[in-house]
Request: fold
Amino acid sequence: MLLTTRDAQRERRASQVIAAVSLAERLSLVGINNASFQEDSSSDLHTSDILSRVQSQSRFQPGQLSTIVDVTTMEPTPQNTEPATPFQRRRYHWRMVYYFYVHVVLFIISSLLSGLIVWLIENHSSARNLEMKVDYIDAWFMGGSCVCSCGLTTLDFAKLSRVSQSVLMFFTFISGVTFSTLPALIVKAHTHRRVEGITVDDDHGDLDDENPDE
Reply:
C-alpha cells in the first residue's frame, strides 16, 4: 500500500512521544521533577499513561510502528495490509498524473476519426449527398466541433447525409460532459473501494493544521 497522510501523521506523533520519553529520562537523571512541567494533575496522569505505553512499545522495531495501536489516538490500524508493489505504485501514479493528458488525446483522436468517417461517407459511399462535396479539412472541423460541443461549422449540417449526421451525433454524445467525466468517477470510486476508505491522496493534507492537539 502507498504511504498515506494518516500513516505519516502517526509516524510523526510516535516520534514526538518517543522524544518526550527521552526528555523525561534525562530530567529524572538530574533529579528534576518532571511533574512541574505539566499544567495540572489530569495532564500528569495523561502524560504518564502515554509514556508508559510508549515504553512498553519501545521493544518494537521502527518499521512496525505503523501496524501497532496509535498511542495518541488509540485507533487501531489494519495489520493485514500488503505493501504495494512497484508496478502498482507506477500504475496509480500514472493514472493520477497523466489522466488529463490522456483525456485530451482521446478528444483529438475522436475528432480526427469522426472527420475521417464523415469524409469517407460523403465521398466514397452510396449514402452520400451528390449535391455537395466535402473536403477532409471541413469534415475534421465539423468532427472537432461536435466532440468539443462548440457548435462551429464550415458546412451546412442539414445537407449532409443521414448517416453522416448520425455519426456526428454519436461522437457528440460520447464526448459530452456526462460521459467524459465517467472515467474519472469510476477510477476514484474503484481506488477508494480497494483501500476501504483509507486516504490515498492529499485531500486531507491539512489535518495537522486543523487538529494540532490530537
In short: Residues 5-78+204-210 form one domain. Residues 86-124 form the longest helix (39 residues). Confidence is low (pLDDT under 50) at residues 32-42, 59-80. Helices lie at 5-29, 41-57, 86-124, 136-148, 162-174, 177-180, 182-194, 207-210.
